[in-house]
């Protein structure tokens, strides 16, 4: 098959017209395994995201052979996207060997489905077996901390990125901790962290701080955050809305 016919197959599967929908998932995954380094191979992996949850849950474990790492990684990821964390873990546990992608996907599976403590447990297991962590791994770990309100753990992981793993934190990593600091009402620390960034702070960071200032009633700091946000995104209404809300309360 070529990409055009593959797209038609996905259309049939997602509309329920295919009698062997998961068979096509396997075809995509197997082709992607052989062509993963090509642009077309990456497209095949993306197409599998469109396959219905029912097809994945019904047949996924049967098509995750322990020795086929890329196929297992993809099925693990699909289970995670469906919220089937136990099935994702079953695929993970069956793998004959695991790559950074396998471990990171399992962290993400727990983080995205309301199990931050289990996500951090997987992170600790990575350290125990000597598996390296990259920038994407730390995004998933810090997201787990953010979802779980685990502020001190988030600060610890952020601090250890460069020191222990040689990974340079970027805005996306800081964003998780800044959000945690804001939720905890530690607004001065959040603002100081933004001010000290090597990269130029993006609108999302200022928007997060602005929201936290609103929640905790810090009008002065909200004004500063709002001004910075307006510089980056003049059309964003959030600074004006927050300013008006503060005025209504006085």
Summarize the structure.
It is built from 15 helices and no strands. The protein is an all-alpha fold and 250 residues long. The N terminus is likely disordered.
Keywords:
mainly alpha; 74% helix; single chain; 250 residues; Serine Threonine Protein Phosphatase 5, Tetratricopeptide repeat; 3 domains; disordered N terminus
Radius of gyration: 22 Å
> How would you describe the shape?
elongated
Task: Extract low-pLDDT stretches.
Answer: 1-24, 32-49
How many β-strand stretches? 0
Count of helices? Answer: 15
Oligomer: single chain
User: Helix-strand pattern, N to C?
Assistant: HHHHHHHHHHHHHHH
Chain-averaged pLDDT:
81
Give the termini separation: 67 Å
Summarize the main sheet.
Answer: none
Please describe what this structure looks like.
- The chain is mainly alpha-helical and 250 residues long.
- It folds into three domains: 97 residues, no CATH class; 71 residues, no CATH class; 81 residues, Alpha Horseshoe (Serine Threonine Protein Phosphatase 5, Tetratricopeptide repeat).
- Helix content is 74%, strand content 0%.
- The longest helix has 15 residues.
- The N terminus is likely disordered.
What topology does this entry show?
Layout: H1 3-14, H2 21-35, H3 39-48, H4 53-59, H5 69-82, H6 85-94, H7 100-112, H8 116-129, H9 135-148, H10 151-165, H11 171-183, H12 187-195, H13 203-216, H14 219-232, H15 238-249
